[in-house]
Design brief:
By secondary structure, this protein is mainly α. The chain has a domain of 118 residues: Up-down Bundle (Ferritin), CATH 1.20.1260.10. It has seven helices and no strands.
């Protein structure tokens, strides 16, 4: 027997939130796979530090992905869970397995910054959207979803962790 979810989020908004979380989940797991790839394939004088950093990143991405997927389930949705679906929904793209260490770092910085930007966009105030009401959604690339407080809190904590990793990766580049 299925009991209808009744936590105060209107169904249409809840479904939009689930869809946006699935897009984030796709980007997180593209970054997870790339971090794993780089962990396995990094070479050169920075091997030890980057091998370890890439492991930290794929472990963090897996934890973030799990939290997003569990939030989707808590909203009575189903997390996407195949590479084909993730690649079709992700804003991030696959990259070659063999790259120079600095290229790997730059790709991961770009991925993480993109994920944070997408999270931040989802968490933006409704007031900010009203101030920009003259611009169309396609002009601003903003998502027309009102995120619930619990999801926003979760994403806020994730942004802090991801931004710290971006800082560390940028420091590697000097």
């Amino acid at each position: 027997m299925k009991v209808k979810l009744n936590t105060g989020i209107p169904d249409d908004e809840r479904l939009k939130i689930i869809e946006e979380l699935n897009k984030l989940l796709a980007d997180v797991y593209v970054t997870f796979v790339q971090s794993r790839n780089f962990h396995w394939n990094v070479v050169g004088p920075n091997f030890n530090s980057l091998h370890s950093k890439f492991k930290d990143l794929y472990e963090m991405m897996d934890t973030i992905g799990d939290d997003i997927a569990e939030r989707i389930r808590a909203l009575d949705g189903n997390p996407d869970a195949t590479m084909a679906i993730w690649l079709s929904k992700a804003s991030l793209k696959e990259v070659p397995a063999i790259l120079a260490d600095e290229e790997m770092v730059v790709i991961l910085i770009n991925n993480l910054e993109s994920i944070v930007s997408n999270m931040r966009e989802l968490c933006e105030d409704e007031e900010d959207e009203e101030d920009e009401s003259e611009e169309t959604e396609s002009e601003t690339n903003e998502v027309d979803v009102e995120i619930d407080e619990a999801t926003e809190t979760m994403l806020g904590a994730m942004m802090v962790d991801i931004e710290k990793q971006v800082w560390m990766l940028r420091s590697f580049l000097g």
